[in-house]
Request: fold
Amino acid sequence: MKKGSPFSKEYTGYNKMKFFSVDGAFYRFMSTLWDVIKLNFLWILFSLPIITFGAATVAAFSVTNKMAEDKEGYVAHQFVKAFRENWKQGIPMGLLFLFTCYVVYLDFELFRVTDSLAVLIFGILACVMGILLFLYAFSLSARYENTLKNTLINSLRISMRYFPRTIGLVLVLAVELLIFFFNTTTLFFLVVIGPACIIFTISGFSMYIFRRIESENKA
Reply:
C-alpha cells in the first residue's frame, strides 16, 4: 500500500486535519454562519424604527452581495458604511415595499370577508407584481447607483428576462420560509438567522444574473 493513498491512516488523518483547518470546509462554514448571525442582528437593530427598514435591507444586501462573490470583510463595518451611503434611496424603497405588502394583505383580508373572486384575482396580481418589482430591487440598489424608479424597472426587467431563475428563487425562498415556520424550534432559527439567510439566498441568485449582464455589456 502506498503512503498517502485514500486507504492509508496518513491520508485519512490529513483529510481530517484539513477539514478542521483554517482553510477547511468546517471552518469556512462556521465563519460564514457567524457572519450571517452578526448581519441578522444588525439588520434587525437598524430596522427597528421601521422607517429605516429599506436602508437596513440595502445595507444587508451590500454585505451579502460581497459574500456571494467570496469577498467577505468586516460585516459590521461594511453594513454601517453601506447604511450611511444608501439611506436616502433605501428608506423610500423600503416604505414602498411595506406599503405594497400592506395592500396585498388588506386585499386578502377583504377576500376572506367577502369571498369575491375579483378581489382574489386583484390580490394575486398585486402579489405577483410586487415580487417582480422588488425581488432584485434591494440587491440592485446595493450594487449600482440609480434612481428608485429605474431600480424598480430594472428589477422587473430582470425578473421577466430570467423568469425560470426567478421562479427557482421564489421556490427556494418558499422552502426556507416553510422550514423556518415549521415549529417553535425552527422559529428560533428564524429570529437568529432568518432574514439574513433569505437576503443571502437572493444575493446568490442575483449576483449570478448581474455578472452575466455585466459580461454581456462588456462584449
Q: What stands out?
A: The first helix runs from residue 9 to 20. The two ends are 53 Å apart (CA to CA). The chain is about 85% helix and 0% strand. The CA atoms of residues 184 and 190 lie 10 Å apart.
